[in-house]
């Protein structure tokens, strides 16, 4: 049996490792410590909590479906084809990831608000997007779509072309090959991207409050409800925070499992 040597360097590294783990885990654990079971259960009956939960899950599901529908062909094209301005398009698609959420909200407002570039024309036909539930979904799609598109593109790039070529040689159409060969092979990556997109949409705050506002039952999602409840109902804000923490942890765990499974399949 090999003996573990304790050196000053290993002690320093271990200390740094412990400090980082404690620093990250302590705030998360504190949420659960500061919440009693009674207050946790009572928060379930709070209208602000119920409406925020309902609105968040409805809008994020809608957002995820929209992103999958529009993001899958975009990811496939960028993974398989070259075209003029491709690098610029890739940069624009990734921009919402690094753009401050508040800036994203203002940008959406300047484009689709009542006085926006496109919004003022929509307003002539009585169509109002800003400060509505639709605006919540639009903000979520804007900030969350890169997470799916980037993951989907990588998944399509990793698909072995020989399987597609074999299907094509047997008479399969491009559409059939895509849906029955390419997509199933890339499925783990697509699911991971969709889950990350849903989680990012669930936690969206800045763009939503700037473009959709903070109206209970209409645009007040869970992050916005936490912000509002902090001013008067700490129990409700803690409850919603715990829900988001549990959701985030679950999402990360699922994505890691899917990623590990995809790596195992690739090796085999």
The CATH class is Mainly Alpha
CATH superfamily: MetI-like
Please describe the biggest sheet, giving its number of strands, its sense, and whether it closes into a barrel: none
Mean model confidence by pLDDT: 88
The residue fraction in helices comes out at over 70%
What is the third-level CATH name, the topology? MetI-like fold
Strand content: under 5%
Helix/strand structural class: mainly alpha
Give helix and strand order, one letter per element, not per position: HHHHHHHHHHHHH
Shape: globular
- How many domains, in number, for the residues? 1
Distance between the termini: 32 Å
Identify the CATH architecture. Orthogonal Bundle
Number of beta-strand segments: 0
Tally of separate helices: 13
Low-confidence spans: pLDDT under 50, at least 5 residues?
none
Description:
With 268 residues, the protein is an all-alpha fold. It has a single domain, classed as Orthogonal Bundle (MetI-like fold), CATH 1.10.3720.10. 78% of the residues lie in helices and 0% in strands. The protein is built from 13 helices and no strands. α10 runs antiparallel to α13. The longest helix has 34 residues. It is globular and about 65 Å long. The model has no long low-confidence stretch (mean pLDDT 88). It is a multi-pass membrane protein. This is Molybdate ABC transporter permease subunit.
Q: Topology, pairings included?
A:
Elements: H1 8-33, H2 37-42, H3 47-80, H4 86-98, H5 101-112, H6 119-124, H7 133-158, H8 161-169, H9 174-185, H10 187-202, H11 206-211, H12 222-229, H13 234-267
Helix pairs in contact: 3-7, 3-10, 3-12, 4-7, 5-7, 7-10, 8-9, 10-13, 12-13
